[in-house]
TrEMBL record:
Protein name (Swiss-Prot/TrEMBL): (2Fe-2S)-binding protein
Source organism of the structure: Halocynthiibacter halioticoli
SUPFAM superfamilies: 2Fe-2S ferredoxin-like, CO dehydrogenase ISP C-domain like
Superkingdom of the organism of origin: Bacteria
Keyword field contains DNA damage: no
Keywords attached to this entry: 2Fe-2S, Iron, Iron-sulfur, Metal-binding, Oxidoreductase
InterPro entries assigned: 2Fe-2S-bd, 2Fe-2S-bd_dom_sf, 2Fe-2S_ferredoxin-like_sf, 2Fe-2S_ferredoxin-type, Beta-grasp_dom_sf, Diverse_Oxidoreductases
Coiled-coil residues: none
Lineage, highest ranks first: Bacteria, Pseudomonadati, Pseudomonadota, Alphaproteobacteria, Rhodobacterales
Length: 153
C-alpha cells in the first residue's frame, strides 16, 4: 500500500492504495466520483478521460500512485462555482450531444481540453480531436455541434 495525496476538483484527498490501483478505479471506488466511466479498460473508448495537471488523460491508463501530488479534474468538477452547467455541459444539453450518456463525461472532458488548446476549432479539428472517444449512439454529429456552440459562447 502506498499513501497518495491528490487535489481532485480543488479538494485535497489522501488515501492508501495498492500500487496497481488505476486512477479510474481510485476516483470511482475510493472517492465516489462515478462520473468517470469505465468502458473498456484498454484505453480505447475515452469514457474515463480526466484532466491531470491540465492535460487530458485516460484514467484507465494511469495508476493512482502516478497521480500523487497532481491536480485532477473530473466531470464532477466541470460545473460552474454556483453549481450551474459549464458552457460545454450546457451546449451538450442544448444541442443533444448525448444519447445514452455513457460516453458523455469523456466527451465533455475532451471538449474542454480541445477548447483550451484551440478556442475556435473547425469541424475537422473537433472530429480529429475526438478520435480517442467512442460514442456508440449519436454518430457524433450533435457532439460536434455542441462543441462548436461551446466554442462560440
Amino acid at each position: 500500500m502506498t499513501k497518495i495525496s491528490i487535489s481532485v476538483n480543488g479538494e485535497s484527498k489522501s488515501a492508501e492504495v495498492e500500487d496497481r490501483t488505476l486512477l479510474s478505479h481510485f476516483l470511482r471506488e475510493n472517492l465516489g466520483l462515478t462520473g468517470t466511466h469505465i468502458g473498456c479498460d484498454t484505453s480505447q473508448c475515452g469514457a474515463c478521460l480526466v484532466h491531470v495537471d491540465g492535460l487530458a488523460v485516460k484514467s484507465c491508463t494511469m495508476f493512482a500512485v502516478e497521480a500523487d501530488g497532481t491536480d485532477v479534474r473530473t466531470i464532477e468538477g466541470m460545473a460552474n462555482a454556483d453549481g450551474s452547467l459549464s458552457k460545454i455541459q450546457a451546449a451538450f444539453q442544448e444541442h443533444h450531444g448525448l444519447q445514452c450518456g455513457f460516453c458523455t463525461p469523456g466527451m465533455v472532458m475532451s471538449a474542454a481540453a480541445l477548447l483550451k488548446e484551440n478556442p475556435d476549432p473547425s469541424e475537422e479539428d473537433i472530429r480529429e480531436y475526438l478520435e480517442g472517444n467512442i460514442c456508440r449512439c449519436t454518430g457524433y454529429h450533435n457532439i460536434v455541434k455542441a462543441i462548436q456552440a461551446a466554442a462560440a459562447a
